[in-house]
User: Fold these one by one.
Assistant:
Number 1:
Amino acid sequence: MIYGVVILFLVIFVPLAWRRSRRQSLKDIQGPPCPSLSLLGHEKIILAAEQVGDLEFQWVREYGPTWRTKQCYGVDALWTADPRTLQYVFHTSSYGFSKAVIPTETIKLFAGQSILSASAHDHQRHRKVMNPAFTVAQLRTFLPVFRRLASKLSQKWKDHLQVDSSSHILNVHPTLAHMTLDILGEVAFDHQFGALDGKEHELTKSFHNLFTDSMLHPPSWDILFKATWNYIPSFCFYFLKYLPTKEYKRFSDYLRTAFRTAKGLVNEKTSDSNEGGKDILSILIQSNLKEDGRYRLSEEEIFSQIALLLVAGHDTTACTMAWLLYEVSRHPEDQQRIRDEIRVARARAKARGDDDLIPSDYDTLAFTNAVIKESLRLHPIVPYLVRKADREDVLPLSIPITTKSGEVIKEIPIAKGQHVIASICAYNRLKSVWGEDADTWNPMRFLDGSGERMNVGVFANLMTFSAGNRACIGWRFAILEMQAVLTELVETFSFELPPAGMEYLRVNAGVMLPMIKDKMEEGVQMRLKISLVA
Ligand code: HEM
């Protein structure tokens, strides 16, 4: 049946797409030759790349930081890693570039009517209600929970070592994900998921391999089918959740489960006699009630934020931490330097009369923070973002490019509806921003300030948390959580790469996940050798 639907869409929409591609003005922009006359353009090779970003890095080397690719049905897409263009798209033009249809409708499949897929007008409303839950003061109150659950994780790993031997090769990803879910449960919803205790919540089951099942290496029919979404009336999207294939079923099953969990959590809050709850959901509900009725979030929108937070706030951080521990394993001398730095900070805290580090102590861990930034630079969990110009516009470039006809240009006129793809992974490795060693590990770049001159993204000039008014609302949350967890783990354990023979892949499942070559059927994993610090 799905093939019939796809063929029908192809017949109707290929001519439309072809006509649209004629209107565009990007023909003179250089880019990789199209693999064939294929209707898929470059989409298939980008989505199937063995290592996320490798193609983009190669294209930046060949064409400069702004280049053109073909999307399905011959439509041109403009890719950019140019800092000025990114600043223009994400900051200067404010809401002038909306999220493209395919990511928006895909997000709705697993996060309903949440902030992540809201239109510009609705986004301001969502963000105003959610902001009070993500202030610095609010987040600092979460630190004891971050520390307690990091220490619980550490105890679990110690137990592994006792059962096994003094060192052990451990897949660190699942327990990191259990810990980040438990953290989110407590600080966001005042709820105990008990994932680290091995409790099988229906949510953890329905989240397991959600993105790899739904988005990793999509079949050609799905890529072509999704491309038709750019041309169909919006009421058709309502039916996507009923598509019977695994790609769509996994998302709609998750959304149903998340909504069930969300209803339970909201009921707990509203029946709670303690109205001054300090968790994210309580603050969101209180902030919503203070709003004028016209601007309030509906019940469905609140459930959707919960479904989104459960995804956006846990595995993103768990995978990012898995990469962080991978980098720490590859660089034992940096690992030791982190340990020494924590020791000094602890001694200072003790001399002051504090039992433990306080939030401002984490800001003084200059090298540890530089390591976190460097890992976020090389391993951005969201590798690119697709935006659509809401009107005709002219994009400024800080790095001029040479067109096919040999002209050197500093700006690119674009048509309304043009897809502009921000390559987060390519920007994060741009030599003009990060220096000649941009492809290699060097946390020191964040200590001499050389990497942080331009202020493109919300954090450390990185695009990893995006930029502008739709940037990650949880970036401070994620950083404080990583600081607390990394200090606990590096103080307690020594990390090494396992013996040679394991090749780690950054796979593209909508988000960038760690897997092991030739063991992809085992799912997301990061195997590291751990032992207790002597
Ligand atoms: C290392 C961890 C994280 C990374 C790399 C990350 C990255 C991102 C990125 C790139 C976006 C923009 C997506 C887009 O425009 O389509 C985003 C949005 C968002 N993130 Fe995060 N995130 C992380 C952790 C978190 C955490 C811990 C939370 C919540 C507790 C969170 C909640 C959100 C929300 C609600 C949005 C939507 C914001 C909006 O549209 O205004 N994220 N994140």
Number 2:
Amino acid sequence: MFMLDEILSHKVQEVKEKQSLVPLKEIKEKIASARMPRDFYGALKKPGISLIAEVKRKSPSKGELRTDFDALSLARMYAKYGARAISVLADVKYFGGGAHVVERIANDSQVQVPVMYKEFIIDPYQIYEARAVGADAVLMIVRAIEPDRLPEMIETAHDLGMQALVECFTAEEAERAVTAGARIVGINNRDLQSFEVDLARSEDIRRVLPEGVVTVSESGLTCGADARKAEALGFDAMLVGEAILKAQDVPARVREFAYSYMGTQV
Ligand SMILES: O=P(O)(O)OC[C@@H](O)[C@@H](O)c1c[nH]c2ccccc12
């Protein structure tokens, strides 16, 4: 938990600074000219498990993920080889991303799939920021958000025409997410304390979710076999970063995940 705590206390400062530099009113003006949101929910709901491929330069646990990192060319490859959505890290300090990186990818003519703004969201201000740069969805980590603010945060995303991928670590959090109005729930397979990955644990959590909620298996999936396992467990989608980012042959690795649906082309 230590890392998440550190990131969150940094975010409190960061959001305060941003709010004093760029008032919400200005962000809202920018939203008026942002491109129309794309259907993230629909993209994940398609038959077979959907791949959300992640653009992430580094992570606190793994450091830099590839020497020739180029966010835009990776996103283009993801879209071209079958990812149904793209997750882009907006966090600068810990993951080497940025709102401008999301903006470039979300507005690139070669990337026609929905784009998720991956940030540690603690305040509605960040949700407006996401839409202003053209994002179609935002990540919300249940644990990072004050419990009584979660419904309002999810509603803010929906009101802006975006979807929220609401991330949980326990069954209790998953239930809380659904009660708060989540339509898409992500279960993080990586234990935040031990960094261990356990797909079976995520299946236990998935079981508490009602029909109609889109479920996403997040983190630690290494290959097509893991994708099929997640699919067999009933997940609608999976979120994959490292396994793709570390691959020498990115298109082949993307295909391996994206084409896992009974071996057919997506
Ligand atoms: O790189 P991986 O193990 O395939 O995981 C991707 C994604 O699930 C992970 O980056 C992630 C899941 N939830 C997060 C919250 C913040 C930052 C990162 C994450």
Number 3:
Amino acid sequence: MSVSSIPLQFFLSDFWIPTIDGLEHSEPCKHDSPAEPDSIYDAWLASRHTLPEGVGRGVPGASRPITVTNLKLAHRMAKLCAPEMLKLFWSHHPLRALLMVSISFVRGIFPVFKGYSHAMIINEVQSLISSGHFTWPHLVRLLGTEFLRVVLEKYLDSFATNNEHLVQSSARFSVEYQQMEQRVRLDVPTLSDPIVRDLLSESDLFVSSFQGVGGFGLLSPFDFIRIFTLLSELVSHIYILSTLQYGPLPLITLAFSLLSTAYPFFQSSFMLYRYGFEVPAFTDNDMRLAEKQEQMRQLSLSESHRPEVMLFGLGPWILDTWAAAREAGLGINPSRRPQESIFSHMNVAEVLTALQNIPFVLMLQSSTSLGSLSLYRSSIQSIVYTVSNLFITVQMAIQGIFLMGAFCASMQIEPLLQPKREEKVKYESKTGGMRIEARNLSFTYPGCTEPALKNVSFTLEAGETLALVGYNGSGKSTLGKLLLRIVDFNSGELYINDVDIRRHDPAELHAATTAVFQGFSKYNGTVSENVGVGYVADIACPEALRRAVRLAESERIVDGLPQGIDTRLDAYGFDAPPPPPGPMPTCGGARPAWMPHGLSGGEWQRIALARAFMRAGRPEVHLLLFDEPTSALDAHAQNKICDTIDAIARAPSGRRTKTVVFITHRLATARRADKIAMMEHGCITEFGTHDELLARGGAYAALYRASL
Ligand SMILES: Nc1ncnc2c1ncn2[C@@H]1O[C@H](COP(=O)(O)OP(=O)(O)OP(=O)(O)O)[C@@H](O)[C@H]1O
């Protein structure tokens, strides 16, 4: 998007609405932010607290008001981010980057050359008409020069575009790479922090600004270079004006010309201020409305939701909810519309444009050169437009700096589960599996008041099998995630092989575990990809894939698929992505390879089991955790899977080599375990063997009897 196409209101409204500054003073920071923030993150956080209440507080990308505080913050951020950004520009194509900046300067002078060349031609033609003192060779030379100028400008433009494209693509790849690299590093607790989410969203906006999408106040460092072009354009126009010969009333004429050309901008900004134009930032309410509207739109389009939409008769409700949100979002409600006055309909600018001709005529009295007048007029207009563009660009650049700050700050986020370097202990394998000892573990999900786990304590010796049983919502899956180091606990202690779990690198622990989650992932890919991600080193190894599929008792299912293990699976239900380009299948014809194949719930569960089995048998894996792995399987298949897990957890000699944790509602499966933990309301209320718990006659015994 070119800078000139950005509405001027975008810039002026922030400047001309004084309440923003006032609000900033009346709204002290909720967090203690230092006067000169030490880190980029602090500066970014401080800038968020300068947003007025209700306007964009919770909306990533909301434009910060232009205040002294924010200018200082932007300056601090730019300083802190500069090394990182310079590296980004220089790392791939230093010479081309230098060329890009230089060409930006040169391009700014082009409009002046153009005006000058046109003026010379006009002068020559004027001589022809008025005095006849002109020479054909001179006019031809001038036309030739103009032709050369056009060719040169076009050539430089196309060279600059190609050069920019190359430098920009490399920088874009780098920022996208860094963004991806950081995303895959971050763990669940880090990502569940709402401030981190906002930071990442603003960081994403910065990354997308490299796509050249513009709009919404996005300005990448590349667009920032355009400021150089605008500056050189401004300076060259001012220079041209200073070299012109003026007639009578030079200063008054100049002032009138400048003011009359600039008037439309002042008029529009005055109207915005006087007649209550809203700040062009999205309010929290706008975002809620947009979200609701999108949710309803998706619901109406989604084919996978269609059966329930039909069954529950949701059509009218979807339509009404969407319409209410959309109407409010579009401002169709008349009370939201800004007041308009008769003045807003008057186009005074047109009157002024007519009046502008008066000083020109006055100048014409003394000036002999029509070309100079044309140059004068085009320079005046260019100066006003360049200055206004410069203001818009600078204002957007300031917003861009906050997004750039978000990007740089996001790069410095350390995953919460990662231990400090000095506290880190390497995970040591223990023959016979993982020993787990939990002491008074408590955990509350972020934003919740009721803990999901309360004072959970138990010990599981290496190689033992534990079944976690209990009512819905009693905390079984949460405990499983704690053991797998997916989430962190709030209090208590958890020891793995007698070492505090918090001192281990989660990646090392994860390499020593395998799991099937209750809500396992369905990847948009082939069977082999869906299974192979369990151990990516073997994702292209047919034997390893076959073995995992066989262990999960899914050979028959996979062999029955149209392309066997290479069949693409339908992970989206009916909402599969559009087919790739190519011939469409004819009615009754063979099923094309790209067409994803659906699976039943139990079949998907076997695929997830096969994924876990990809690495389960490996010697470095010491903990196998299965959260309802066989809930959708028939009793026969369940028993076979349990036998398989038991076999995997043992050496050929029969000695236990892996610790196994089952989360299950099937007590027939639970009774096979060495230990059973009965969970109620986030606590382990009973712990022991099946026989011990039955003899106790408590909640487990009651549940077991009910299941018979
Ligand atoms: N992401 C979450 N955010 C907030 N609360 C959650 C979240 N996940 C689970 N909970 C809450 O934590 C409690 C324990 O949930 P958990 O999934 O551990 O139960 P469960 O025993 O595995 O249940 P089920 O047998 O139904 O699978 C529940 O009250 C649940 O509502």
